[in-house]
Amino acid sequence: MNYELADKAIRDMNRRNLRTFDRLKTLKFDELNVLRSVKKVYDDSARLAKRRYLEIAEDAFLKAMMLAGATRKEAEEELEDSITEDWVLDMLEDFDALTLYRFDTETERKAERTAESILASVNKDEAVDHALRLWTHQVSQYADNSVIYATIDGYKAAGVKKVRWKAERDEKVCKTCHDRDGKVYSINRIPPIPHYHCRCRLEKVD
Description:
Elements: H1 4-22, H2 31-67, H3 72-82, H4 85-93, H5 103-120, H6 124-157, E1 162-166, H7 175-180, E2 184-186, E3 201-205
Antiparallel strand pairs: 1-2, 1-3
Helix pairs in contact: 1-2, 1-6, 2-3, 2-4, 2-5, 2-6, 5-6
């Protein structure tokens, strides 16, 4: 699994979101204006994220199929029917075992709480900065999820039956990832990643 495109997309989205959220700091304290402006910020950011997730998933799917032995042509033909906008929406609609929420439901909740915080806070800038940190956390994790789930689907499309869990063997590796390192799992029974920003990989087993 290659997270290079996901990391690039995360950095780009973070820069854009920083500029967008900063505009909330200039809002006048009018309840209707705050509610409308905050909702637009989250809606626009979510739309951007979904476009980037599609790009990330397409890249991960192609690479997984080719790592499993498919030609680029075979992988691209399979990609057309496998990784679509609906694929992204289905991924985001599923209850995620790590985040413990559904993407759109959590987006709506965050928007409501951000608006409430701005209206109630004596320090509007702090409220916006806190909201941005939480939103960045969410958007980044689903970029990683796009890599993980598309890689699994790419392997399945190429006929892979088993994968080996490969952990990053450095001082940052968590105990769960360390214990899973080298273990082989059925492609249909891969355990969920244990923490945010996990960089473990799944390698096909012949």
